[in-house]
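cache lookup: miss for this entity combination. No prior model stored, computing from scratch. Input as submitted by user K.M.:
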Amino acid sequence: MKLTVNGTEHEVDVEDDMPLLWVLRDMLNIKGVKFGCGVAQCGACTVHIDGEAVRSCQTAAADVWGEVTTIEGLGAPDALHAVQLAWLEHQVAQCGYCQAGQMMQAAALVAENPTPSDDDIDTALSGNLCRCGTYPRIRAAVKTAAQKLQEA
Amino acid sequence: MSRLGKIARRTFLVASTAVVGGVAFGYYAYKRPFANPLLDDLADGAAALTPYVKIDASGITLITPRADSGQGAYSVQAALIAEELDVELDQVRVDPGPPDPAYYNTALSTEAAPFRSTDDSFAANSTRGVMDAMMKFMGMQITGGSTTVPDSYEKLRLAGAVARETLKAAAAQQTGAAIADLKTSNGNVELPGGGTLAYTELASVAAKIDPVNSVTLRDPSTWRLIGKPMERVDILAKSTGTQAYGIDVEMDGMLHATVRTNPHRFGDVLGFDDSAARGMRGVINVVPVTGGVAVIADNTWRAIQAANAIAVDWGPAAYPPEMDGHWQALSDSFDEDHLDSRFRDDGEVTETLDAATEVIEAEYRAPYLAHQPLEPINATVLVQDNRVDVWTGTQIPRFVQSNVAKITGKDTDQVHVHVLMMGGSFGHRLEDRVVREAAEIAMTRPGTPIKLTYSREEDFTHNETRQIAMARGRGVVGDGRVQAYDLGIAMPSVIASQMGRQGLPTPGPDLQIVAGAWEQPFDIPHYRVSGYRAPELGPVSSWRAVGASTNGFFHDVFLDELIAAAGADPMEERLRLMWHDPSRKTLEAVAEMSNWGAPVAPGKGRGVAFCMSFGVPTAQVIEVSATDAGILIDKVWCAAEVGQVIDPIMFENMVQGGIVWALGHAMNSEITYADGMVEQRNYYDAPGMRLYQTPEIMVRGLENGRDVRGMGEPMVPPAAAALSNAIYAATGTRVRDMPMAKVADFA
């Protein structure tokens, strides 16, 4: 089957029910997307499909309905997305393992809602676990990211 | 005596070694009053080969042997070296280095001695010295016990200073300038007439001269880096999804594996049927491992699918199959036969309790808890003829090395352990079962790298958990004061369980059974803390804050109950009872930060708690609201005494995160056994805290203390206690058991 990831089309030979997570990580070697729980409980595997934040561990390869964007496609160290810049400025990460998923979720939020309230942020990001407990910084960084996009 | 004065009287012996195209500086021994000369010999040879600073033409590498599980250990260690070496963090590489006895952890042993952190007596210090020597002898290169900062604080600054002075000597030799006229900055030696020589240019000269053995550490007032916000060395990678963790290892020809081992922990494998699994797509082999089976496949998901398709006949576990049996074992341990320690026994506790007309009694429980860092545990092993390579995130690289050597039949020095960034740990990676299993699997396919990844379900059901614990308090109040306080704590020995899996004996009492309780700096007239060693039950291990994670809750909630019974103010009575000045200042700080004593809105309540653990006095105030939807945690104020905050941003982030960790687990998480197996299988069974539940958390680091301490754990023990005390203030209900959601609804 064909998959477009970060603007590049790939032909992959996988089972229809292989989760997108494992197609990305093990077949295409795109490692920014993380395996955390496998059951959509933690959000570490969050990617965008046509701009919508989805859990790639619960999205079967055959069901992918559009272009996939991973954290690598959101921005790069020398070309940061506003969300990544905000994450950097607030030094959000501790272990950092959940943060790609957090940033993908946050990017989808601020793209849709340029001025998210605390409640909006809580609602959008409460499905993303952070075992290190960086939540206070995540809240602040989402607001900064929204401001940066407004100013851009 | 000032810290600098103490250092100046020590003798430094330092070696430098030529490495390919450059120089490596090792700082190795300084004389200790209680060190065994034999141990110094051991360190001499080893450390000369194992530097903290390596410079060659391609650049400067700082070796940071304490592992990074997210606490910023690499950044802190690099900053300590860089402060004296005069390099900036963005011009160096950071490398955790190989397993080696020279990287032994001294601070871990200091806290293993049965003396209060507040005890500066000769006996306390001399025992700590002996424990140091033992740890050095064992070459315990361990990351844990909040010891990275205390262990590194002098050692790494010295390493930086020695390297700097030796590079200056090299520059003097090369240019003829006087050393006194040379300055250093940004990785350069600055010459008197202008002009610079890069450290990288001086490396080969520096390798050939005698290192400068006598250095004086800089006065803190001149520090460029320490105490100031720095950019973490890993923050760009972690903000862009480009940080590689153990689970991201990828190499040519690598195969993927997963395991299923007996959920009745350490029970036998009676038989298994893998016929269905072997026929599944991508499956390459099914092989036995200790306690279970492993699937080797061409993809992680395929391996996990196939492992789930294997039918296994499991033998039973040795511990009680149901929780009732575990709690009964604890309940039966409160007697003289099980008495493990009674380091605190002030006044006349028994007589006071016997004579009292009213004795206040309470019983507390804390459950098993899983670590479950978000990166599922994993290890990659490649077995070849004359070497074995291991890539993994671990806190115990030396144990990993020797265990893998035994499994693969190689010499220890043929096993190369590459320590990788960890996606969290919280103590989980003080165990190395995953690496041993990966080595067993890799032995079946020499020449092929094997990456073993656990499914989340396998990790949850095979976690060496936090200890289960129970406490019983008896106390007497009078004249508005706490008069007698008697606390007994029963738990299995974490250290015996953990070290037992490494084949190591653990003689003597286990301090963790009473840690966070016996050493609290309160001056109660009749004051006793007894530790009771319960029999070994489910496998237990170090979970963030270890013994204090349960005992800080028990000790402070019971104190709060007595204070309430005495009719005293929770803050004022704790302050009145506290004799240790740096500890008192943490309480005063949270009182001021939270404006304690100001009227609290109806439906709200505030609790205060204090716990000294890992030598760090930590006070917290929590404010909750009792709403129609349940208890809401609104605000947390925390003050901790650490001697020196190395980086205020990392400090705040870690303290906030540790409070989130502690409160989340206290609210809603536990591990329970049924039919001998762990019942919780994924985060839906034990979620911890989520964003919408996260309170505002205000943090203050205090610097009034004698010693510099680490903050990886001490914020945990008081948090659950402050929450319980706040719920009492808001609702009148005492929450004595965790998880608290069993008795309190949370919004």
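stored under new cache key. Confidence is low (pLDDT under 50) at residues 1-15, 27-50, 129-139 of chain B.
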